[in-house]
Structures
1.
Amino acid sequence: MYKGLKLFFLVLCLSMAAVSQAPRQRLEIHIKDTNGMAIPGAEVTLTLGGVGMRSAVSNDAGVAVIDNVADTDYRASVSAKGFADTIRDVSVNGSLLVTLDVVLSPGEIAETVNVTAERRQVSSEETTAPVSVLDREQIDRKAVNTIGDVFRSLPGTSSVNEGGFQVRPRIRGFDSNRVLVLVDGERLNNSRTATAQSGVELGLVDTGSVESIEVVRGSGSVLYGTDAMAGTVNIITRDTPLRRDAGFHFGADLDTFYSSNENGRRGTASVTGASKYFAFRVSQSLERFGNYKTGRPGTVFLNDFRTAGGAITNDGEVQNSQTHGGNTRAIGRFFVNDKSSLKFSYDRRRESNIGSAGLVGTFTGFFPFSDRDKFSGRYDTVAINKYLQRVSVSGFYQKQQRDFTNILTVPPVLPFFPGIYQRSETITNTRTTGFDVQTDWLLGKRNNLIAGASYFRDNNNDRRTVISASTPTSATQRITNTKSVPDAHLANIAAFAQDEFRVNNRLMLTGGFRFDNFKTVSAPTTGFALPNLTPSQVAFLGIGGLASGMNVTNNAVTGDAGAIYKIDRHFTLSGRVGRSFRTPNIFELFFSDSGSIANSFQVGNSRLKPETGTNVDTSLKFKSEHFVGSFTFFHNSYKNLLATVPAADAAGTPIFITGSGARVYQTQNIDRATIQGFEGEFEAPFKIHLGYLTPNGNVSYLRGDDTAKHEPLNFISPLRTNVGVRWNNFGKAYFFDYNVRIATTQRRLSNSFLAPVNQGGNGGPEPGYVVHDMSGGYYFRKNDRYNFSINLGVSNLFNRAYSEQFTFAPARGRSFTIGTTWQIK
């Protein structure tokens, strides 16, 4: 194997040397409008294999010139103020001068491009997966406190939790570890995070560092493996500037954001530089968000939001919803030659005093800190020969460390009851090492193949300290140090391939497969012990080896197939069927400690099987110069879903801990479910006297069924609609947005969920809501080097008191926001 790797890198280096000696050519892009008039100031970005290579701006004659272009095929993205973005393919075929004519249509409709759905740069019409893409300008317009807020208005998605840090995505009814979150294509998920009570912390990614967000709805298991069951979110961060032909060019930018509701502040400052051989970006951000206020202060919230004990003050302040933090980033990119680059980056995220909105009173929970450190490197080389179009090799090391503290306080009633005070602090430390190798092949003019391998390993250790007493000031306190999870690691190695075959100009077929091997190993760990159970109960539960160490292995084989058919120049029909899976993680396999339910104890289960699904998507898309729309129907079937349930022995007798009498719970593969529905979205710009008026919106419908219990599936938002209108002047210097979010009441719920609150239920159907948002702004650009923008907004315009569905904390009330961007390119 070692000799094979040496030969591979030798061939790679020789091919790099060969392309560096290729003849240099000139590319001219002639840009005009539909009337044949030249468009000056249009920006052209040249990409190769999805990697940004060069950029240029058109002159007064509408011509953008890029010199010293190597002989290969490129993709050119063209954008100009007041015109729809356009993408064109261009082949530099040996001529010393290559010209490309581009006609831009006036309006707002752009060709959406993403890299997540197919692991390469494709437009929305070239993929069978439904995709939503938000660029930096759209994120600024939405005036979000945290990345998770964007999921409130995208088709097929909603959000979980509230506050400035803990908002997470829910896609097609699933959240937590059933949604895979990537940062620049690398996993943010880790295998220590609990699926039922927690999830991926999007707050670990600085909002100010985000360039775009790509959301793929549906299975992504073939390309990304475990966790990509309901969808895949790829957060793409700001990169270095592109390569420059001559000299060294510096730049800088400053982004600020303020939200009046919680007195929230965020600022990010960056310095950039680029030359022919090297480029860099260094940035620092700081943020501080206080407790937010819910809508219509002074009204009664206790029944609506199920909070008590001072969680919401008389003026509507939601206690324990604050967060403070900062982020440091440094990126350096070396240009080996015209087709190869080497990138290194470091990301340091620090968040402290993170509250859990409304979780205060008898039981208070918060995160004293949640930190992330990440080192990564990537090598890209493209156009190696006429078959091998790209080789990308990346690796990263990531450390996530957080402290979750909860405090239980029951006041004394003397002389009969001395009171209860218990402070529990759990610190988890998860270190992830991963690498990814991807090759892109052009096998003839009609066949594109992506193949590669990936590996990651999560190493975890944690510790728990519990302080018990009658009251916080008691002179006598009992301190215990335990571990809920033994020291353990989960490792995954996988191989994948995805093929795209163009039968003709109208029909394209796609298909792929993936093989994964997982090994989860726990070690004998001081402080980790099994509860007091009988030998027969231990054997029945399968936990006999938990304390002494266990080795759990499982494999997964997944595949998908799809087709895209262009009916005519306006309509495109697509469909795909795929398999998805999620392997049981360290928490589900090994966690053994007091449960979240009073007087309960949860134990691990090493016999868990992976969750699996069969996912079907069909879409119809329409696109013209004045309207774009899509409609998607999906049907997803899942089996072996994990759920934590009361444990019973072979005779059906409930299992209790000897001595304490605590009921034993265990995670098991017991559920089967079906989730189906549709998603539609549209955008239609109209030319009016002062600019373009663009009605837009989306609608999503979900229906979920627990087919094991023959009852409705809970935590499903039935019908969600987002409609709005946007206005831009012809120069795209001014804009105005008005949006309405509508969620209908969910009555289709299980009987246990509909039960009264005092019986552990929801107390009735899940309420719907209508929320209005408004924003506007101004963009100033000079010589395409100096940019300034200001965004003003009002969220929850009418200060409505409501909560996002299946979120047990109230949503933010009205907030006035202001964001600015100052940039020197």
2.
Amino acid sequence: MPLLAAVLMAATLHATPARPPETYIGRDGGLRVKPPRLELEVTIDGKLDEPAWQQAAILTGFSQFSPQDGVPAADSTQVLVWYSATAIHFGIRAFESHGAVHATLADRDKISSDDNVQIFLGTFHDKRQAMVFGVNPFGVQMDGTLVENGQTLTAAWSGAQAARLSPNLNQDFVFSSKGRLTDYGYEVEIRIPFRSIKYQSADDQDWDLNIVRDVQHSGYEDSWAPAKRANPSFLAQAGALTGLRGMSRGLLVVDANPVVTQKLIGAPGPSGWGYGQSTPQLGVSARWGITNNLTLSGTAHPDFAEVESDAGKIVLDPRNALSFPEKRPFFLDGAEQFAVPSGLIYTRRIVEPAGAVKLSGKAMGTTIGFLTALDDASLSATGHDEARYGIVRLQRDLGGQSRLGAAYTDRELAGDMNRVADIDSRVVFGGLYSATMQYAQSWTRTGANSLDGELWTAILNRTGKNFGLRYTFSGTSPDFRTQSGFITRTGVTNAVVDNHYTWFQERGGAFDNITLDVQGSDAWQSANFARHGDAQDKKLHFSLSSSLQGGWGVGAAVYWESFGYDDKLYSGYRIERTLGTTVDTIPFVGTPRVPNRDYVITLNTPKFSSFSGSLVYIFGQDENFFEWAQADIYYVSAALSFRPTDQIRVDGTYDYSAYRRRTDGTQAGRTVIPRVKMEYQLTRSIFFRAVGELDVTEQDDLRDETRTGFPLIINGSKALASKTQTFRGDVLFSYQPTPGTVMFLGYGGQADGLTDPRSRFVSAPLIRDADHLFFKLSYLFHL
């Protein structure tokens, strides 16, 4: 009898139909999702037709977030979610009845011109940081991290206000996705293994969750959680996955990533073009998940990821140094844990590390980042001394959205040292306000010389739907140094007052919103500020920008500016004076102040199915830094992305600046940088790319434009007319089935042309003077 009863009970349970799935409507406040835990496996094929998907929780009821929040989404979206012991699964049904779906077979992280859905997963449930997993309709992946530390959202030229921060796409996670177009829109299937991510160690967990959908034909961005623009945090408004338990990353979570690189460098020699002998370099990186939320990583001889050269930039103000982004996978992994205001940690200072070790994660409400590295001795002046780096970054959560952070960096080389200690905080209050404060101290010793300096920042921000403001007071003392970070300019104190107001129009009008931005700023040399002296640079900017129906963006601005003479910048200048037959030199003192008035026009097209573009055009009067005089300026920055098929992408940029003297209309200087990148995506993992960039810089014979008209002498040499041209080209074959497993085969070359000063602006032929062939092979082992 007991056996018969057991058989009957088992049969009854088997015949009981599965519980219908729960539906969570974001617009109605259904934001706490309890996904089912299923001991099932599915095939990631882009079809949501397996039994597990019939039991998954359903997320629907999206709201529009940008350009207008608080209204129902025009296009319906369903997101299904369930999890097993080893992974969390998402299924997406995106309904599209108003326009064509935009989808290409793009490379990883390059789906911003496609329709896409992004999953914001905050596994520490702190509503401050999230991992972002994005997919386009074909399942092409975009991933990264979003950490909200009070960064500014104002556009560089137009004054337009972004709705939220964009994620940092540098980090790559290992996850599976596949999608397909359907008669109603598109469908995508996603599997995120727990071993690929960090999360809490508790038995029962809640995770932050939001889903964002970008609809390209309208330019709208929809959000499952009905987020408001009038909030200092987008992540704080997320929903949650609740009751997660029984998750496993495996007994030992270790990833090993050996890499082999081979590079041949070519250069002209006495007997013609030749390539130097080199041996393959073997490097390795490894990651150990010590716990669910702490990861220890190490690397030896990582490659510089020189798959593509840094894009050229126009220098508008020679007093400000230019920085370029980090590209090396080891330093990009967990980079958000090392983010510090004012750029006090900049890992590209570690040029060619022989080895490095990193610990990152979050424990007990504290985010931890520790990095130590040893740079190659061949880079030192002696060729035998190794630069040693030690970097620590800690951040502690306070209250709902506030935090307290500290950082310490140390660089030592041959007895010289640079140390920087930092403390910073962000306080969120009043629903709309946030305040960011920072103080840092540096200690630098070079030989017998010592320098101590300070850096400080105070920011008040109001994030209102209509009215917002950002007030900033910051500065560095002249002796502040950071050899582990990047500061564009030291010895300057800045005060900025920025107010903006946005008008919104209901759906159906000609525009979605219009923003008026008024910004005033003063910049002092810090020593002069301490003496209550006059500001060196004074600026007043009026900007008007609008988002139009259909995804168009337009803007116009006028800048009133005044720049004071900088004796440091012109310390090497003198004037060659000719009186009769006598030639001598006298000091260059410049004019005390140069007034400017610039006009700015901006245009952004919608992301059409085959192309999109943007334009910034500036004209008016601006400072001619070549001769320290007012000049007529012409500046153009244009970008065009062309997608003739779902496998071909052509991206072009054109940057142009020219300064013409107001006295006679002659050209003092000009820079032109056209750049074209062409990609052919054969499959999701294989693509071919070619990049070409021409950098042309012209400078006329320089003269004392505002006073005597005599020629200028710079560092002992007469400043004669010159024209330099540099062409850089890269060709690449890439096979990357998963992050960490790659094969690159590429070629990069450079050709230069230098015009003789006597021929002024006549173009010289480009002569190839350097190139290189490179090969990289790496494989990611999961141990």
